[in-house]
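User: Thanks for the earlier help. One more: 9169_t:CDS:1. Can you show the sequence and predicted structure together?

Assistant: Of course, both are below.
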Amino acid sequence: MQSELKARYVELKAEKAELKAENIERKAKIAELKAILRLFVSLRFRMQKISILEKYAKEISKEILKEPIIEHRPPFLDRLESDAFFQQHKIIGGARKSAPVS
């Protein structure tokens, strides 16, 4: 009877060690899942903020597109204006030859 109790004691002790090891593994897995959950929640919060910002950006762009702020001018007008400026001030090669002509 004494040997049976000792054998049962050793068996229960081994089972307890296995359960402790499983418990440690499960706690580690729970900690990992909690970290993933925290990351997911923070990303979801950031996505909501981005969504709100995108909504505001769309509203602003609609307002901007309603009225043109800058008038479109063909590129040849820029060339004509610069030619007129250089002719008026008689600038040749970056050096001024004389005072502006009226």
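User: Great, one quick takeaway?

Assistant: The helical segments are 2-66, 75-89.
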